Amino acid sequence: METDDLKTQRYEKIERLKELGAQPYARIYDRTHECSDIVENWEKLAKNEESVSAAGRLITIRNMGKASFADMVDGSGRVQVYFKKNKLPEGKYDIFKLLDIGDIIGVKGQVFKTRTGEITIFVEDFSLLTKSLRELPEKFHGLRDVEIRYRQRYVDLIANREVKKLFETRMKIIRHIRNFLADRDFLEVETPMMQSKPGGAAARPFTTHHNALDMDLYMRVAPELYLKRLAVGGFERIFEINRNFRNEGVSTKHNPEFTMLELYQAYADYNDMMDITEALVADTVQAVHGTLKITYQDQELDFTPPWTRIKWFDAFREIGGVDISVSVTKDELLGICEEKNISMDTSLNMGQIIDKLFGLTVEEKLVQPTFVYDYPTEISPLARQHDDAPELTERFELFVSAFEVANAFTELTDPTEQMRRFEHQQELRDAGDEEAHEIDHDFIRALQYGLPPTGGLGIGIDRLVMLLTDSPTIRDVIFFPLLRPEK
RNA sequence: GAGCCGUUAGCUCAGUUGGCAGAGCACCGGACUUUUAAUCCGGGUGUCCCGGGUUCGAACCCCGGACGGCUCACCA
Q: Are residues A56 and A204 both part of a single domain?
């Protein structure tokens, strides 16, 4: 046999099937049960001698001459099917013999239990519904090659059932979060993904172009500034779960497009945001695992509230071993880096250095859920400063297993102060910090109409899903992670 | 963007000192009417990622490239 030709073989089989009266690509099939229903309710079904119909993909075939067993899976699970030549309509067994692993079929028959105890459909009649032209990966080892798994996720989902389960968990987590927020009277809204001015986070955007209007547009790096505009408009409890796009590195924790929850609550502050974060995450962990203690990459994580809350400068000193105050100078910081053998790009600005140093000395040690709060104003351009300490903001981040999961603050509502912050950002930008904010005059205008005191929260959904599914890389929780094109 | 590692049959993987390209599953042919990674007999289906080089001879050694993974950098 020539090589090319599994597909050739299968095209030939299609012709033979057609000659035998089978349609290789059927329109529809009426099912009475899903596979798992049949397995769960088999006693009743067998006793009543009910004829059931089910459909699914053949994943194994054990041929024994004039009879054969096969396993069939549908969206619910797996069931065994039994084809016996003299129980099928005349000539139908010849059609069965032309079926391959990977084909999708519909079967009709009675349920019974084999002498080895396997619940099985005794097929009285069946139809080919969709012929498969490609071989599925080997049944025993499954599909391991991560490149094929990510590029051809459809094969991964067929070959590795636990991958399908993982994504089902992802969807359940998101649904759970939506329900949690709906129960608390939050409305889900949608704001622009394409923005003429990207804002709301310190990140480099993707650029695109609108032809008819001949204008450059940016894929959003965050919905924040639009959501706050809606808060100005009178929406007191809103959230958005949607994609953000950042034109930055790809890693086990970063994909260029990722899913973010942002929520805003009027007449609330960052303490309320800590409470809602704790409740939302703990509730979701409980819903997925039935417990608040889970394992992530061999680490025990305990989500039982209350979680540790530590001030940013206290964390820096107690956990990072960096004893500084908010009046620290750039030279002092660089001295500390040298002392600690941390290589630091000296051209970075003050905020970038202090943020990076915090990341390197503190974050990696925050394994159990920990709120770090009261961030420097320098690195928090959209957060409200403390009344009695304007160099600090009412902002926190949540860390779990050494990575950031949430970021929240009491929103800055004073348009004059916001303008000052934007102007400072613009200076940083002019000095070479490409991630610093541009001035958004319309956002200032919105604040001038009056944003009520508001608390805001962002949670990285992909990272939360990683934690709850014990996934070592973000690519495992995104159906189609970004890869370079093939060939 | 940098360093390290990987790429061999549809899939999972071996491949000796540089000397005819291998196994299991899948697939094809045959046997088998309750199997469970069914079993038994027969069959190897290949651009060894790509392009150069060294050599009598390269999957193997050297150079360049592609894609992927990990670590770092950047970030969430």
A: no
